[in-house]
Fold these 4 entries.
Entry 1:
Amino acid sequence: MKILVSDSLAEEGLKILREVKDFQVEVKSGMQPEELKEVIKDYDALIVRSATKANKEIIDAATNLKVIGRAGVGLDNVDLAAATQKGIVVMNAPAGNTISTCEHTMSMLLAVARNIPQANASTKKGEWKRSKFIGHELYKKTLGIIGLGRIGREVARRAASFGMKIKGYDPYLAKEVAEELGIEVVELNELLKNSDFITVHVPLTDDTNHMISDEEFAMMKKGCRVINCARGGIIDEQALIKAIKEEKISAAALDVFESEPPDTNSELLKLDNVIVSCHLGASTEEAQVNVAIEIAECVRDFLLGKGIRNAANYPNIDAELYKVLKPYIIMCEKLGNFASQILEGRIKEVEVKYSGEITKYDTASLTMAITKGMLYPVLKETVNFINAIPLARSRGIQIKQIKTSVDEDFVNLVSLAVKTDKASKTVAATLSPKRQPRIVKIDDFYVEAEPFGQLLVMKNWDVPGIIGNIGTLMGKQNINIAAMVFGRKTPGGEAVSILNIDSPVLPDLLEKIKKIDNILEVKSVKL
Ligand code: NAD
């Protein structure tokens, strides 16, 4: 079997692959897309880091390819949909760089506290300005950590050993999990108002894009210092420049930028109290080795038929069963994703109920798909089919699956009862006669909605005029409504409405829709 490694990969990873007699491993980094497109047809496996773009064109040309391994977390450079369409498994290595990124954050924390980069530059120029660089102790200061996943929690452990008080904000993680680490779990506003240092460790999503902007800087303590070693865009760079110039923020440390590399004329790079590095969070020899080993083992085991691990697009089941379950897997992933986006609060319990013919099969992979879909909006690529259930448990979510013979009016039905610390909801889906997923029930309301693309999901009173009002607001913003479904129990009573729309509803429009008379709840959902 032929394996192409098209970006540089640590020797420890290559060794794992070369040890297998049947593998022929070729390392060709720095290929142009045209060359890769030409040679890819010869290979069974492709291993990349971030430089190779495994886009649709490359994947279409890959007639033999069975697996793409990404040595790292982000999958922005791999076209997952195209790979899935061709039956190519895509794997990543989500855990290998946690410690490195955490340690980079700690370095930034100490550097902003003690002005180390500025003092270094000044001293090397021959200056001796001891009073200019007076710093601050971390001891007894409050560190606000936004996002308490793998990296956020490691940062909390280390900061605690410096005697810092830790406040954490993560609306998707069970409080008990964070509290066990001595983190005081608070709302975002409280964290912003009370922290001396703030560090962000969330993925970049629609919700987290510019989550720290003018309003948030305004809430911070004067002199607060902020750190971003997660993703560019979480902190609004223009708002940061303003906050620093107004001396609201006394320093910032950035490893990541809205556009990378940042424009050399960017004002951000000219501010003395902004220290920067060039996306180095995961750049340690150890992390490179860890991700190389992790991905080499996953690809090796897959090619040797020893199972699928860390797959972003496939659960771990045999090929025959996969063929039968594939439409259900797609449906279940959508169902989980849909449920988590229409609910408020931290998910605590999930009960998955299978009924109808589907109960003849082993439904474990469907529960994995539901869990992956449910965690995806908040964890992005770090959740995959294989780690979804253990990750959910480690985040304090209880998952139960039951099969029932109760006749539910559908040939097959997968129903999901989700409880959060704020609400509970049941949603159910089935396959249409053409094997297409349909959301068919929300609580006690029957609907039939296509779970694809952009949706607006509402609870409203069943009175005339609502859709007209929404249509007018959307029309003004050039948003096209592609389909609408309604479900009600009694005329004039409560109803559920789902709209498939052609472009996203931005927060200001969502606020206007919420204010329309007789609308009880509204959520924008992206599937
Ligand atoms: P993770 O998936 O383990 O944790 C992310 C956490 O963010 C989760 O606990 C999730 O519940 C929380 N979260 C999601 N949306 C949130 C919101 N709106 N508000 C508050 N919390 C929210 O991820 P991780 O491995 O800890 O990585 C964290 C970040 O670091 C990611 O953005 C990742 O891309 C980035 N990263 C950067 C580098 C680098 O080189 N600088 C290296 C590795 C990871």
Entry 2:
Amino acid sequence: MIQHRDATSVLAGQETIRTWQEHLYKTVHQHPELGHQEVETAALVADALRGFGYDVHEKIGSTGVVGVLRNGDGPVVLTRADMDALPVEEVTGLPYASTDHATDRDGVVVPVMHACGHDVHVACLLGAASLLAETPDAWKGTYIALFQPAEELADGAEVMLDAGLADLIPKPDVALAQHVLPFPAGRLGVRPGPFLSSGDSMRVTVWGRGSHGSMPQLSVDPVVLASSIVMRLQTVVSREVAPGEFAVLTVGRVEAGSKSNIISDHAVLELNFRTFSESTRAAIVAAIHRIVEGECAAAGSPKPSTYETYDHYPVTDNDPDVAATLAAAFADHFGDSAFAIDRQSASEDFSEIPDALRVPYAYWGVGGIDPAQYAKAEASGTVVTDIPANHSPSFAPVIEPTLRTGTAAAVVAALAWLG
Ligand code: ZN
Ligand code: ZN
């Protein structure tokens, strides 16, 4: 359990690091990089870690960076931050807003923005790494600061593992991570058990028979077939998942045809689904297959459908002991600002790292919204319309107290094992 004294002495340096930390945050925010392209960000991170005295491994997988700081015998704590940005055009109007563009995986030039706040995670973890390096007398053990590429592409953790991450670092006793979320800055929350849902995408291609629009009797119309599938899929969550059990199934994209008077020969549906339990996930996958096959049979589809799954995120399922340790440490340090956070329907690939390394983990949320702005929106019942959430082109975490809280959270969490 954390000793309050240790956190206080480590965090005494927070005012000293504030200037460079804020400068680094603004630099990363202004120059966001898409997944696996985080070259400048990774170089900045690696240079900083070396400056703090960490052993640094770079270019793990693609742009992954790990810093290891050994400080005597004791537990090994790994904390992870993700580094990638999104193809979103920033409209925050901030003086340090991004106007950068980049070429995405499909070769398309897109605007880039840190719309998910991963720049906050980078700045906070570097801040914590620096504070721990400056106060070796306050703790014992090994601190691993891991900077992951491409969380938004669902394969950043995977490429680091495939590149031999396990052989580069000592085996952690615990793995930790945090995300900035749209609640008041200065607050933070953790919970035991499932915290972030699993997320999966699936591309389904169904086949009809093409014909002239004036001769439907010669066709099997894939537009009608796809429409039946879309409607029937709406019953999966409403009729097949138990009330109270969380699930989302969205048909995000439907594509068929080229012209009003041509009946095309196929349709493509892109689905996304999220759950908190593996059994619900399996039931949804089975229902999708059953409905697609059933509707294809009913339509007289001439060719087997194809299914392609992609962008899989596992459930982020906080270890109860780790989460309890964190909750106690946060309550001790942050008082009422620490709370028991609700489950979130967002998804993350962080847990692939502790799962592969066979270590327990927990993941928590820190607020990023100006508390006064949030209170005003709450009072007028306009949180939904006035408070931009992650992935919005208006998402603009307030620098303080967001960085101070996220940095302190990473330090307090680490010291719960190392203090
Ligand atoms: Zn995101
Ligand atoms: Zn994110």
Entry 3:
Amino acid sequence: MDKIKTMTMEWTGNSLIFIDQRFLPLEEIYVECKTYQDVAKSIKDMVVRGAPAIGASAAFGYVLGAKQNQHYNEKDRFFQEMQNVKKVLGGTRPTAVNLFWALNRMEKVMEDNLEEKNVKEIIDILEKEALNIAYEDIEINKAIGRNGEKLLDDGDAVLTHCNAGALATVDYGTALGVIRAAVENGKRIHVYVDETRPYLQGARLTVWELMKSGIKTTLISDNMAGWVMKQQKINAVIVGADRIARNGDFANKIGTYSVAVLAKKHGIPFYVAAPLSTIDIETENGNAIPIEERNKDEVRFCYKTRVVRDDVDVYNPAFDVTPHELVTAIITEKGVIRQPYEKNIPSLFV
Ligand code: MRU
């Protein structure tokens, strides 16, 4: 398997092609990245987004970087150049830990082979590793789906925030993977989707993806979530994560925290679906998670329409941190874990 093609990305052997998520669902445009700099720009500009998708993209970006430096037969120089490739790719978005997880995994493979192999052989090994990361991601999401779907009953309505679907991963999705697995298992599931201002990942991406898969979908604006819960329309909340700290606090798309507080108030189970690569065991709690702030125009505009003057002051944190007390369970490929997270999260890694 030397290629991969999903809805989110395609590795051709010499380039990485993305569906441009900035224009969905109105336009289906594709962006071809031929260099690691192109991949870095696509991650930064959110052509591709979602923690596992960012990780896999960075791995392929690293391979492109290696190919761009293949003329350095002298391994020290090649190694030096690859450190720069890693730095550029790692400098794109700070919150999703999958980015750093994937780059560290790629770098380790390079280091492990530096003594024995020549540059050409190392590049082949790196390409295999990036493909492994991508293929594994799909299998991991399916395992998350199998583990999580047991938490849902036939006829349940689920609220989700942002997009933790096929578009946020290599394929299948984490939070949406759980929903997909339940539906594949014959359960009737109705999904309420928060529109997810300012970037509208819920309205633009999640709704598009769920409707494509024939899953019953209702879009609400973010400020409707509390009322919809109060009306007893929601049986469970499932979201993805960008980084889960050792104690179970986790960063996800801005607005997730509010949804978790509302779920607690209404006695609705609140689940986080994420692979082990999203768990940052080195980070003790949510206070230490770096939160990306994005361009203020994302708030001044609603999609492409300006809603306020450009001198209006704006604060635009792209993520928030939800404390672990609000999390009913974390659904991983290794199983579903519950509190106490300080004990149960580290046990996933033994
Ligand atoms: O800014 P984004 O669109 O990259 O944020 C994405 C999210 O917050 C997702 O919920 C998270 O990455 C999980 S994706 C499986």
Entry 4:
Amino acid sequence: MPCLNYQRQEQIAVISRAGAPAEPIPAFLQELMTALRRARDDAEVTAIVFANILSADGGIAAPEVDDLEDACAAVEDSAKPVIAALEGVLIGPALELALACRWRVGAPGCVLGFTEVKIGLMPSPGAIKRLLRRMGAQATLEALTTGAFLGAEEAAEAGLVDALGADALAAALVFAREPADREEGPENDLATRPAPPPDAAQFAIFRAKTAAKARGQLAPVRIVDAVEALCAAPAEESRRRVRAWFDECRDGEQHKALMHVSVAQREARTVPDLPPDTAALPIRTAAVIGAGTMGGGIAMNFANAGIPVILLEVSGDALERGMALVRKNYEASVKRGSQDSKRAEAALRLIRGATEYAQLAQADIIVEAVFEDMQVKREVFARLDEVAAPHAILATNTSTLDIDAIAASTSRPAQVVGTHFFSPANIMKLLENVRGKATSAQVIRTVMDLGRVLGKVVVLAGNADGFIGNRMLMFYGLEAEFLLEEGATPERIDRVMEDFGFAMGPLAVRDLAGNDVGLLVRRSRTLPADERWSPVLGRMVAAGRLGQKAGKGFYRYEGRTRIPDPEAVAIIESVSAEMGITRREIPAQEILDRLLHALVNAGAQLVEEGVALRSGDVDTVYINGYGFPAWRGGPMYWAEQHGLDRVVVTARKLAALHGARWGPAPLLLRAAARGRWR
Ligand code: NAI
């Protein structure tokens, strides 16, 4: 079956998609070339229009880069101008083909995404060159290193889209009928216009910024190299160099890891045991209980997705404080440039404050984010049970409590589910949903789909202590404290983990979350008889070192800048002395292995117990909620690449030190024997 249709509309050749899903790329490109030749050979044809053949759902899968570059060159070199009508989402090869056209006419909703960097790649050298000519070096660098999506209007401003039209095809045909009007003078001939001259200072600044942000990632750095080379060196030589970097990225470990992440994130949305015909409930209005740190951010998620949301607090004062925080967060996101002020205002208008439960009667979903206290939560859920619509989903944002115990305070446990957002909830990508034993298939389907509505990466966890993420964090965080007892400093541990690629080391994270909060969680738990807590955390709290908010914790702080603090180290040393531990210099490799292997083993236990559905879900949680470097594929993927047997060895050592639970999970042992998780 052909991928493409070829039609004449008067003197214009219109190439459109042939209904059926497009064939894999080689057939698509071949047909495109055939169609171009046909238009070339038809003396009456004056211009060619690509009618919506390029959007991402057209299935232009990754082609051989040489084939793609040849096709782009043929489009660009066509003596008869080619005009692309852009609709939907354009990324990758489709976008490269569009950029090779003489003009692009976009529907208002079209989106152009330079997403290669997100999977460890860069666009082909030809595409970078075309971008450079149209947008200049700075905008090209920004777009390619961030993987930005540009909406139709932004793309028009950047010079990538030449006109907008509600009916992109009709507008493209207008363009095609009057090419003479737009006939290019030398300054308009983008195909031959030279790349803008390089600006060494500009590149130096951008390179430093990128290196700092990329921390170990190859593709963003290579993109800067490529853009600079294409601006500077003679054409043929620069092309060769850029092509070598392109190959380096495409054939490298990081691309493989990021592809794993992308597949894992997609797979995480599926829940194998739900009946296939389970339909999600429509979410038209939402409510959030509690306007504290989390509640306000959760409400922002709904509002940003265009869903009206009621934010309920205990009193007018508390509500005013919460709303002020929401407003401040919107102002911050406008300042940061992540939201324009019009959108922020529109979203803010969708958030309505309330202090009366009766106002919740319309909500399709109610997310509770009150204090982490079972009694308080049970009271709130009992109230919700009285006022909520019969179909309403009653969700809790608890990070540690038992979902079933909360559900038991209602007459409808099938409607109760965990929706665990991460802080700050308006920014962090992860949504860890938690199913209770009674949660219905429809409710699970709805909260899984909600992830997509809210722009989150979503994972389903079982209702077990700490769910997926916090259970793993517990082992990882404890191990960091044991390493402190044995001789490491906070600075040393954090540097090792940050050099590995974590956004923040474990002790800096503790200081951020608040050491008192960590201690409180700890006090609500009991450990197996053969385990112990490290006294380090308690000592920090006792010394008033609560973390960033107190200006001191495992570090001292000037603003948000952390500074190694001999006083904190002295507290740690005194703990070692009391415990009779002779402190030693712990090699970086040992720090890395002990922390990461503890994490991986905890992940294996979760998969074994069915708390996580698959090892890829564990990776998804850790990357999107806990700062694990995506380009290493997540802890489970990383372990598979670096030797599951090494994890077994470490886990055995840790079990001897800290207790049986630290020993290798049976799943880990089986996987190590195979060399892979499944
Ligand atoms: P918070 O203390 O900042 O806010 C709680 C808010 O709930 C307060 O404004 C309080 O006035 C309000 N509240 C208390 N009882 C209420 C009631 N009966 N009705 C209405 N409002 C009531 O707490 P935070 O940090 O926002 O945590 C909320 C929930 O989210 C907790 O379950 C927590 O474990 C969870 N969570 C917190 C994270 C964090 O990083 N702070 C991360 C993920 C989950």
